[in-house]
């Protein structure tokens, strides 16, 4: 083991100074560095602090990482130029090509001081990323899903996704409801954040709310106007594009830009650039329907005129032929009536003859039946007369029987008579009165 007195050493500060000198000698000029921004923040002084990373090609594992910063004076210029060129805000998640000075601080270590950023590189990266997402949507069958829907003949009930305070929303509503034709539209606003990091989730939430009442709407319009061009990146997200593509009714976009299309513009039923263009699109649909209706009315008028003329001509032909038709009709009816009268006379004569025969037959039957019934009743009366003779009290008394009564009551037994009773005894030829002296 070596003795400490013989070892040549540097203090940590001296080592860092040496590294600083070597780096300054090795990189005297700015170096163009490709990297992805993983962290991004601005402080109160206007300086911008970043963390840059580089990922491995075959996966998302971080291969390198370094701190970077942009001084406020440089940042103001770079940000304005970057956003104007790319239409994208400088933020975490995007790739940049930056000219950097490599600095090493004895206390804080190595860092990059960004002097310039090439926005064209970022545009290429953004286009590549958008193309990848479009291919993914196409592979999943969603790219043209909304475009393949049938567009309503009269898109009158409109669900609007926008910020209530957005100038574009106000322009859309004014142009739609104050259209020169007087067409009636129904609009319902589903408020959403249309700028910043919350835009994607906010618009998705609004789409979900519309979906819950989708039967009450014909189309969805997504409007944005008056905001920063840099905030368009929120509309380049896969999740939002997937929601728009799979929505069950047509989606129209008017998010206020002319140069580039966002991802949702590609999947929407129609991209109309601005809110007022969306309003004109809907009004044109009504105008088209109106024109078709007018055409149908003209066609109908023509057909009615032809039909009317045909009916008039037919009526005229009938009028001219009416006398001969009536004469023929009268003759035919007269002949038919004569035939019917002849048939009626023949049938009536036959019916009368049949009825007379039936009356004669019934009369004979009635006479025969009456004679038989008189004979039967006469015989029955004879029998009753004989019975009455046998039960006649006078006939019974003539045979030697008598009737006895006391005080008006008939005597039928010895026990009902007392000594001294005055009894009347009736015979067939008279009545005698006697007194009972002995029982």
UniProtKB/TrEMBL annotation:
A GO molecular-function annotation: exodeoxyribonuclease VII activity
* Top class in the EC scheme: hydrolase
What positions does the domain Exonuclease VII large subunit C-terminal occupy?
Answer: 143-434
A GO CC annotation recorded here is: cytoplasm
| Enzyme Commission identifier(s) | 3.1.11.6
Q: Which InterPro entries match?
A: Exonuc_VII_L, Exonuc_VII_lsu_C, OB-fold_nuc-bd_dom
Reactions catalysed, as given in the entry: Exonucleolytic cleavage in either 5'- to 3'- or 3'- to 5'-direction to yield nucleoside 5'-phosphates
Q: Return the protein name.
A: Exodeoxyribonuclease 7 large subunit
Which family does the similarity line name? Answer: Belongs to the XseA family.
Q: Which UniProt keywords apply?
A: Cytoplasm, Exonuclease, Hydrolase, Nuclease
Task: List the subcellular locations.
Answer: Cytoplasm
In Pfam terms, one family for this protein is: tRNA_anti_2
Where do the OB-fold nucleic acid binding domain residues begin and end? Answer: 11-118
Q: What is the lineage of its organism?
A: Bacteria, Pseudomonadati, Bacteroidota, Bacteroidia, Bacteroidales
Protein's GO biological process: DNA catabolic process
